[in-house]
C-alpha cells in the first residue's frame, strides 16, 4: 500500500494517488534502509539533506499536480453548471417565444372582442333609439288620431309599397317572356313541319 501524501492546504483523496506518490514512498523506504547501513554521521547528515531536498521537490511537484487536478475538477463542474444553465436558458427562450405567440393571439382575440362589444353597443343603442322613436310615434298617433299618416320616400312603408310595384312589374315581364317563348316554340314547330 502507498501512503497518499497530503501537503498543507491541498485536499487529496485516495483516488488522487499518482506515480509521484509511489516514487516518494519508495524513495523514503530506500533512503531509510540505506541510512541504517551507513555508519558515518556525516554521511547520514548528507543523506538526510539530500532526502529532504528531494522530498521537498517531489512534494512541490505533487502539490502542483494536485492543484491542477483540482482546477480541472472545478472547471468540469463549472462547465457542467454552464451547460445546465444554457439548457435552462434555451427552455426559457422557447417558453418565451411560445408566450409571445400566445400574447399576440390573445391581443388579436381581445381586439376582436372589443370590436364585437362596440358593435353590440351600437346595435343596442340603435334598437333603443328605434323603440323610443316608435313609442313617440304611437304617442303622437294617440294624441292626434284624426291626422293622416304621411310617409316619405325613405320610410319603410313607402319602400314596401315601391317594392310591391317593382315585383309586380317583374312578374308582368316574366309573363310576357313566357308567352314570347311559347310563340317562338310554335313557329319553330311549324317551320320544321314545312321542311
UniProtKB/TrEMBL annotation:
<keyword id="KW-0539">Nucleus</keyword>
<dbReference type="GO" id="GO:0000775">
    <property type="term" value="C:chromosome, centromeric region"/>
</dbReference>
<feature type="coiled-coil region">
    <location>
        <begin position="68"/>
        <end position="143"/>
    </location>
</feature>
<protein>
    <recommendedName>
        <fullName>Centromere protein U</fullName>
    </recommendedName>
</protein>
<dbReference type="InterPro" id="IPR025214">
    <property type="entry name" value="CENP-U"/>
</dbReference>
<keyword id="KW-0158">Chromosome</keyword>
<dbReference type="GO" id="GO:0005634">
    <property type="term" value="C:nucleus"/>
</dbReference>
<comment type="similarity">
    <text>Belongs to the CENP-U/AME1 family.</text>
</comment>
<dbReference type="Pfam" id="PF13097">
    <property type="entry name" value="CENP-U"/>
</dbReference>
<keyword id="KW-0175">Coiled coil</keyword>
<keyword id="KW-0137">Centromere</keyword>
